[in-house]
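Kindly review both lines to help learners:
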Amino acid sequence: METSMAVGVHTGVERGAAFEDRLLGVVNSASLALGLSIGHRTGLLDAMAGLEPATSEEIAAASRLNERYVREWLGAMVTGGIVNYSPFRKLYHLPPEHAALLTRNGEANLAAILQYVPVLGQVEDRLVDCFRHGGGVGYEHFHRFHDVMAEDSAQTVVAALFDSILPLAPGLDSRLTAGIDVLDVGCGQGRALLEMAARYPSSRFSGYDLSREAVGRARQDMKEMGLANLQFEVRDLELMRDASAYDLVTGFDIVHDQRRPDVVLRNIRRALRTGGLFLMQDIAASSHVENNIDHPIGPFLYTISLCHCMPVSLAREGMGLGACWGREMALQMLADAGFTQVDVRDLPHDIQNHFYLARV
């Protein structure tokens, strides 16, 4: 018995030490997330991608930034294993394999996604109050959120739209080329619609979003691009009364944020013509937390949900489904809304989203 107890104590101490190491890793990783967000916004990461090993003065000059701030930022990047450092000549270098994942011209800019960390941190005080008193946090309290979402969407949606997403529906490209009526719900700044309207001039496109700021930006870009087959409206999706008006409705990562997703889905169903398609992108997760334990970005998804998706719905006395409402609930709600056939597709490069092809 004494031996067993000693082994148990020893194992418990080891587990505690391992967990302490993990928490220290969390502290460092969270700090790097903030630093990488700053590096992205200031253009430091992009500037370093085009430089040979350089001094902090040279990097500051290339990025047109203050050298003292650049040097301190570099200290975080060096100790965090992001940037290489040669102490003899005091030279810093962003390895090309790191630049490929951290810069605007790379394969995938994960630094852009890390902007969510400081953006969501701005509402921490309000969230703490929600824990104590209930309620939610309105869209108006999320500074820069639409800008970050638009940049994220440009990578996850727009970049894959024509080669990967639209081809999930056989024949859709041909129909868009010939000319159909398309609505994008929760369009934000309209990045996807702007690209589609430019590519398919014979089709007619509309975008609805609740944010006047986002719609204003979309209209400005539409005007600059000279697109005549596109319109944007400030519209509450719960109040949509469109009937048999569209051949295709798209919704990119927006349904779970709604105050009443069930009402919105019914409105979308009514807006579609016979034979129409609702192409819904939403989070690739299960409705049951035990099925998400091994999800490669599970903590990120639940945290985004906690800090934005759920409270913006609850701020309007909504259902507060959250980002991880899950495939099971999504399929049930689509069926309840009147969609008779739903196919769920995934893309090999996208670990974050499911694509639902819902037909009437």
Q: What stands out?
A: The two ends are 67 Å apart (CA to CA). The longest helix spans residues 2-42. The chain has 15 helices and nine strands. Strands lie at 84-86, 91-93, 181-185, 204-209, 230-234, 246-252, 272-283, 341-345, 353-359.
